Amino acid sequence: MFFLLFPLDVKSGSYTVLQVVEALGSSLENPEPRTRARGIQLLSQVLLQCQSLLLEKEVVHLILFYENRLKDHHLVIPSVLQGLRALSLCVALPPGLAVSVLKAIFQEVHVQSLLQVDRHTVYSIITNFMQTREEELKGLGADFTFGFIQVMDGEKDPRNLLVAFRIVHDLISRDYSLGPFVEELFEVTSCYFPIDFTPPPNDPHGIQREDLILSLRAVLASTPRFAEFLLPLLIEKVDSEILSAKLDSLQTLNACCAVYGQKELKDFLPSLWASIRREVFQTASERVEADGLAALHSLTACLSRSVLRADAEDLLDSFLSNILQDCRHHLCEPDMKLVWPSAKLLQAAAGASARACDHITSNVLPLLLEQFHKHGQ
Length: 377
Hints:
mainly alpha
């Protein structure tokens, strides 16, 4: 009972945290791992309630203590991580200690072997430091990115994945160094694409499949540096027989076009067009057709806004020429079933920019007028 009053005693000023450590000394140094774990758990609970009261010198001593305990028996590690989570929230944390803590975790903790709640604690520590110690963490360079990749690798729980996806998004959007690990960061996230998750009945956590889809899409579409790895994956999934994979891939492509340029798209345009054309021509799903048309619109808009050098190849004109080549002859066959899909594809591309509209209408309008006069007679 005496131990349960520690948080109140620290808050009232009757005890300092270091005096609590001394009072718990026998359990913290006990040769039995379960006893040590209970002692550290109690100390961590005190820190979680009193972290805002800690002085800088106390934080320094506690960080050193907890880092050393990361080398302890595996039964002790969950309680150690809880203490480090409390310390990661401390305003009094001196410069350099955030980096020290993360290096110790990356080096000493095999995150994949922890329970879900303890893995979540690791993600929380990383998130806290990214929110308050960004410049220090950026000083680690690509080592921080690599350390996080190792932490996330193999994660299965949707509660943890939502947090992990946010961390990856922040790594990219806040311009942390990815160094030579761009492909590794892509692989550790794209392995979940497309999301295949059905929440269990009466799930108390309330995580929906759509939450994971949107969170992962925000990561995959966040940087052009993923393009060379992502675009082949999207083409593969659009061409699959799974409806949800088609929809997710087309919607992700649509999102990517907001951040890509001609350079990222160039090598994949023929395959992207072939996949979109096939889906619009052949699908029985109105949703796939709509998402395919939206993706074509976004691709055309992306090519339209890319700044051209004087000696650069004009990808927009060649892309539109391919669309016209595959669609315009169907307009001359009004009894055929492909006339409307062809018209929709041409409309989606033409609506993307003034240049695209001019290119397509100048090629299609004469043909339509000819057909009108021919059949009007």
